[in-house]
## 1
Amino acid sequence: MAVGFVRPARPGDAGEIARIQVATWRVAYRRLFPRPVLDGLDEQAIAGGWRDAIVAPPTGGHRVLVALEQPASDPAYLVGFVAFGPLDEDHMTPGETASPTVGGITELLVEPRWGRRGHGSRLLAAAVDHWRDDGVGAAVAWVFDQAPAMGKFLGSAGWALDGNTRALDVDDMLVPQSRYYAALT
């Protein structure tokens, strides 16, 4: 029987986090983004960004956590991650002001081959625990409209659409997103 758990990311995890992000995006978003965009993802550059996020986060409230699965007789495998922090401009809509009591998920991914084993739920629960410790009472997350798995996952955890939408310009193509919201109290 395997054991799953979550811990804070370490600098040495950055390469594996980047590998998981690239692999997951190429599977989950293959119908959403143009192939040249996905093929052009630079795993080493992404790893450098994750290393920076782990070693020197923008604030004390920004965190990266990793999910691990450890089979009975094997070492633990890093299988997913979540990056989150206080509400910032990446999470807000135009004209919205930041609030220290609202947090935002930057990225939450579990590599597809490790899906449906509770890792996403453990990562989300750990983020919520950290937010509560920091006095954060609500959180938001942007979800791609044409890749509904994350929206379904967040909905099953009690999150709901808050009515805000946006479109990201990706290689001259607008990719719509909707924002989910959850009260953490």
Note: The chain has five helices and seven strands.
## 2
Amino acid sequence: MLFWLTELSDGGDFFNLFRYITFRAGGAFLTSLLFGFIFGPPLINVLRRRQGKGQPIRDDGPESHMAKAGTPTMGGLLIVGALLTSTLLWARLDNPFVWLVLFVTMSFAAIGFADDYAKVSKQNTAGVSGKIRMLLGLVISAIAGYWAACYHPDALQYKLALPVFKDTLVNLGYLFVPFAMIVIVGAANAVNLTDGLDGLAIMPVMIAAGTLGVIAYAVGRVDFTEYLDVHYVPGTGEILIFCAGIFGGGLGFLWYNAPPAAVFMGDTGSLALGGALGAIAVATKHELVLGIVGGLFVVEALSVIIQVLYFKRTGKRVFLMAPIHHHYEKKGWAEPQIVIRFWIIALILAMIGLATLKVR
């Protein structure tokens, strides 16, 4: 929205700063962060009054989680609100990729909100049917996949770019949209599974968003893509502003979600943020790199898949409890110990993913 101020510029004054994506990304970060600090306490108070007993705690979860009974959920509203405000304020609103990532984020946030509302209103952990959530997620992702393909350059349309092997493009054809659906829905659900301890999901999301923001900025500049020998996707640079909004909103939320959490993110936040990461990866043609940058989420999701399949086949468990962060709880690790070590792993994986920009 503020980009229109460039029309008042003569090329050498303050208003000229609004032409620069990096300047507007900084503004988005600060706006999102301040939004979290200003609206965090009143939102938490409203959620606490409205929800009464707070988020239902699973009976089959770790015993230590029973102490968290009464903590309100839907804290993702704070992140989503901060992200929406900062993006609409600082991004170019004539950019289709900005609207693409906003569409996916807000749509998955709506699914998560419905699920959280069902849980707190009925005071059980069932929520909205998993089949319904999956169906809605697939529809949203299908729209997003086709949307992205329509605005990709002709040479990249419906193709899969490979990290490291940068001259290779795999023509997926009609399979590109189903592939995009798997990426977006998979990312949304993987982040949702990771959100099981105070602060565990939000920091890796911020790290992944920051990394993808750098990638989006790089692939949106022809000079950078020529130097790095990666595929140029015009317009994706504006996604950096969206990612800065995630980072700022995430920090604001973490202030209240740090152990012991005053509020939980809930599916409202985890599905929205996971879907956002998937949408950014599809828009920037870095779907496979997301698997590296968000490797922590991949491991969390795989631990559940492995546990379920192995138990159905043998009646035994691979992990003491899945997702894998609960396995380490059962082994006696303290919650802050698990959270911080997982943060470190997420940062290492993000650096590896970022290195694929240069390695060839």
Note: The mean pLDDT is 92.
